[in-house]
Amino acid sequence: MNTAPPRVLTVAGSDSGGGAGVQADLKTMLALGVHGMSVITAVTAQNSLGVRGAWELPAEAVRAQYRAVVDDIGVQAVKTGMLSSAVLVETVADLLADTDAPVVVDPVGVSKHGDALLAAEALESVRLRLLPTATVATPNLDEVAQLTGVRVEDEDGMRRAAEAVLAFGPRWVLIKGGHLAGSASPEAVDLLTDGSEEHWLRAPRRDNRHTHGTGCTLASALASSLAQGMPVPEAARAAKRYVTGAIGAGFALGAGIGPVDHGWRFRAP
Fold first, then answer.
1. pTM here?
2. With the C-alpha atoms ordered 131, 133, 139, 143, is the resulting torsion angle positive or negative?
3. Which of 32, 198, 202, 237 has the highest count of CB atoms within 10 angstroms of its CB?
4. What gap in Å lies between CA 173 and CA 104, rounded to an integer?
5. pLDDT means per 10 residues in the chain (269 residues)?
6. What letter does residue 127 receive in the DSSP assignment?
7. Active-site choice (148, 211, 217, 244)
8. Is 214 one of the annotated active-site residues of the chain?
9. Of 168, 180, 115, 186, nearest to 141 (Cα)?
10. Active site (annotated) includes residue 176
């Protein structure tokens, strides 16, 4: 009988366009050799031009999905994405606190198009309830500003941002610097730190506007590598390599911003 691959659970919203959210998470997990499972927190109507509507699921539906998966199948890692409200943030935080597996928290605040995906009143719950459950938190620079008030303009600013996020309790933080310096730098640089170790993750910046789903993809790749037993720094480097390739292969879809290519390794020459 075949042995099951490592199991990773995404707790996130659905993206009807297939580029971000649960759809991106499951594609990433398949590409990286783990078994992906999902808890849907919200349904969005979105495409390459933006989010047309979002409908949050009841907390009991989120809780039931989570327990159904974890109690029977089990998990080697969990990744969280769009949680939208304080009620859902607190519901998921309670579930994570009772789960013995690495947790990657992607504190999704806005979409690629600038659409709000987290209610303002939920920010305190993210800070005080969700971030303390994280093995790794993966905020981008806009999310750092939203959560901490720290506005990053250079690499020293990324250090200050990391300190501010770590103060809320995650074991590690990965500050994503993709928007640093107005994307003028030839490198895309991220900072991974636990407050004592510091790892700068650098990759050539890909000249491609089709980057929908980048944050979801990176967090899911990180969770997949953690589920396979990698230490956090090694898992972060592997996730960075995967998402860099996915950005480089991103393709036009619809009239707006297309997605990264989660299957780029299958299509590479």
1. 0.96
2. negative
3. 32
4. 10
5. 95 97 98 98 96 96 98 98 96 97 93 74 95 98 94 94 98 91 75 98 93 97 98 98 97 96 89
6. I
7. 211
8. yes
9. 180
10. yes
